[in-house]
TrEMBL record:
UniProt protein name: PepSY domain-containing protein
Superkingdom of source: Bacteria
Stretches of the chain forming a coiled coil according to its record: none
Transmembrane region(s): 92-115, 143-164, 290-310
Keywords (A to Z) from UniProt: Membrane, Transmembrane, Transmembrane helix
PANTHER family: IRON-REGULATED INNER MEMBRANE PROTEIN-RELATED, PEPSY DOMAIN-CONTAINING PROTEIN
Native source organism of the sequence: Shewanella algae
Length: 334
């Protein structure tokens, strides 16, 4: 929260606040989210092998330190790979979840084939309340399905991409190049823990010079003498995610080792960076998130109405099978 309308502090200041609170902390990453959410500083300490400090970017206050799994992390893992373990570059749960995109795509195609002239529901939606429960549930199922076609197709196609991406991970196909190492000749010798010549603040200024519309989202600090600053962020391309722009900088010389932006991406890299905004609805902040959430509720409602229709048919068929022997017995008794 920012009730006093304070200006946003720099990332370097937030890192300094964490290091003041935990003098022995080794900060590895910084994650920046939407303006209404606090930033996260990832660090390790003597008694904390892994910890996340949630720092208010306006006041600089450390609001919470979490050393375990978070609710968001749990839900993301549950949704993404059903909490199945990862080993050798793949997870069975990831394949199960992304493979369901095939069933989802099949369901929307079969629905459009079975429901003749479905497009009429866009202009003249029909809900018959006075013709019984089954008719009402069927009308509701069709109406929800028609208005959710675009959303189901979007979830299916992005899910298919996640499936393809998982297969490429499993096959050791690199979509993006690995981070290089600093040349050993460029590393200062003779010091136990030499301090980089390039500060985090200077690295962020270089990113702004390279990409004027750069908004940092993920910052990785050098973990060893041959590691680089890695800065990822968003820019002025609506359909790309918050990691579409990137810079890797030599902490000793300040040289930009590599950079990326939507203009320099391959087809696979473009697919990877547009899939998440389309799947999660992060295109325009909280407003598109709300729209995606509402249509997600519609899909959940469709699963309920679909089950009600299916169970009604099964119950009706079962009742008919039970009635046939009774009728036969009555006829024989005459």
């Amino acid at each position: 929260m920012n009730p006093d309308a304070l200006p946003e502090k720099s990332v370097a200041e937030l890192v300094e606040n964490v290091q003041r609170a935990y003098p022995d902390a080794d900060v590895s990453n910084v994650m920046l989210f939407e303006p209404y959410l606090v930033n996260a500083v990832v660090f390790s300490d003597v008694d904390k092998p892994f910890a996340i400090a949630y720092v208010n970017q306006y006041s600089g206050e450390i609001q919470e330190v979490n050393s375990g799994i978070t609710f968001i992390g749990f839900m993301r893992s549950l949704h993404g790979w059903l909490l199945f373990p990862w080993q050798n570059g793949f997870s069975v749960g990831y394949y199960l979840v992304s493979g369901l995109s095939l069933l989802m795509l099949g369901s929307v195609i079969s629905g459009m084939v079975i429901y003749k002239r479905f497009w009429r529901s866009f202009f003249s939606p029909k809900l018959r309340f006075n013709q019984g429960k089954r008719t009402l549930v069927t009308d509701l199922h069709r109406l929800l399905g028609v208005w959710s076609i675009w959303f189901i197709v979007l979830m299916s196609l992005t899910g298919l991409w996640y499936l393809a991406q998982g297969i490429m991970w499993h096959a050791d196909v690199d979509i993006e190049p690995h981070t290089p190492l600093v040349d050993i000749a460029d590393v200062p010798m003779g010091e136990a823990r030499p301090q980089p010549s390039l500060s985090l603040k200077q690295a962020l200024l270089q990113a702004k010079e390279q990409f004027p519309d750069f908004h940092p989202s993920y910052i990785s600090l050098p973990e060893h003498n041959r590691d680089l600053y890695r800065l990822l962020g968003s820019g002025d391309f609506l359909f790309y995610d918050q990691y579409a722009y990137g810079l890797e900088l030599d902490p000793w010389s300040g040289v930009i080792v590599s950079s990326k932006s939507p203009q320099t991406m391959t087809t696979l890299q473009t697919m990877m960076h547009i899939a998440d905004p389309l799947h999660y609805g992060t295109l325009a902040g909280v407003w598109t998130k709300i729209i995606w959430f509402l249509f997600g509720l519609l899909l959940s409602g469709m699963s309920i109405t679909g089950f009600m229709i299916w169970s009604s048919r099964i119950f009706k068929a079962s009742r008919r099978q039970q009635e046939v022997p009774l009728v036969a017995e009555q006829q024989e008794s005459y």
